[in-house]
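Anyone else keep sequences and structure tokens together like this?

Example one:
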Amino acid sequence: MLEVRALRAWYGRTQALFDVTFNLQQGQCLALVGTNGAGKTTIVRALLGLITHDGDILLGSENVVHLPTYRRVRAHKISVVHEGRGLFARLTVRENILVGLGRAQRAFLDDALDLFPMLRTRLNENVTALSGGQQQMVALARVVVERPELLLLDEPALGLAPAIVDEIYGYLNKLRAQGLTMLLVEQSVPRASAFADELCLIRTGRSAMTARVGDKIAVNQLVAAAFGNGTTEGHPSSTSAQENDHG
């Protein structure tokens, strides 16, 4: 589905990614974890073609590394929920869900509202009148309407109260149950372990280690490598860890 090899990226003359390699299988969820500033969000931006980058980004059998953003997104049916939700502050809830979508996609609005019923009574309100959790529902409702094959999620729990985080991940689990392939950026290893199939540690712009979430020893090693703490209390148990030569 998505294979990334030796990905590098820059902000102007400053190099932010040095060597990122991972593989995401169709119908699976891979979580990029690591400390602030490690390069997780930069990877999402590079995958979308929003910053200068090179290496290989294979979507299916096509290497899209030299394609513009719109061609990647349209041809491979990619949706993204950006850090901070990426909503349009001047638009209503309905307009935020449907903006830029074709008539065929707009027909799926009822499906989105079935998943997020509280939005039905708020469709004509400005999106800024909603709470942070409700705004995240709007961002996810747009995903339902778009019918993507690959979903990029950049810190979907950022800034939300714990109870709301649980609710948002409950909705994401419903999308996963439909077979949607997901790449998740998440700082919390326990939360990522409870949701994803595999973790990929990003450290100083490099992919340092991968771990299947069922392998307690592998996840333990990943936590120690990421945060200097071998404790994985609350992490589910998995089967393989792989350390890359580039650290």
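And example two:
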Amino acid sequence: METIKTGTILMQAGTLTPESLRKETESYSPGWDVIRNSDGGLDRRIREAGWNFFFMAARIQVIVWGRQTEKLLMRATKRLIAKANPAGFNCLQLTELSDRHFLGIPYVHLSAHCRQIQQSSLLQERAVRNRTEPAAA
């Protein structure tokens, strides 16, 4: 499993994507995959395939008390996903991951922006955005 870091992109499992992107995902948590090699070239590769990768300006953030470990990052990521789910977008891009202290007590701050991979150049309504690939595919 790929380690979560700033720039990591999480995608809902079963999201309709360009064929070239389907081999670049790895399971992360129930219902969510991490896109491997989600560097700055991902947006370009998606657009070259004729698809679009929307970026939502509103930032979602969580804090989790404790020192940064894989277990704590998983907990923080699950909280972030729970906060993002009502918006109905199929991706989350982690934009900040930092260790902080408040009165000597350590915590992790994690923030992200929603993203949407889709074929249409116009952002779809939520009901259409929530479509995923059939389980048999």
